Amino acid sequence: MEFVRLLLVFLHLLGMAVLIGTFLVQRRATGDGPPNAGWLHGAGLQLVTGLALQLLAPVTDADYNHMKLGIKLLVLVVIAGLALAYTLRKTTPRWLNPTLGGLVVVNVGLAVFWT
Length: 115
Hints:
The protein is mainly alpha-helical. It has one domain (2-113). The protein has four helices and no strands. It has helices at 2-28, 38-60, 66-87, 96-113. The longest helix is centred in the first third of the chain and has 27 residues, at 2-28. The two termini are 24 Å apart. The chain crosses the membrane at residues 6-25, 37-57, 69-88, 95-114.
């Protein structure tokens, strides 16, 4: 069971890396096109693996801070919602990419510094 938990943590960290990488790719892209699909893929991977880790907690005797996880989930839903809303439009505002990147940094900060 420990291998499954570690695999989920690995995939969860990869999802975070996808979000950060998408932010960097989007910053270098020219034009005001829709957000990169990586925002949705990274957010989806983070969501699925985070929920799987939460559901696996009783089996692995892990003790999670539910308030922290709820706030992280809320930030992730905002990231995915903004990315999805502006993916459906032809143009996006200039504030979208820095906002999404900032939300990713907030989520990583919550994960690291809130014990």
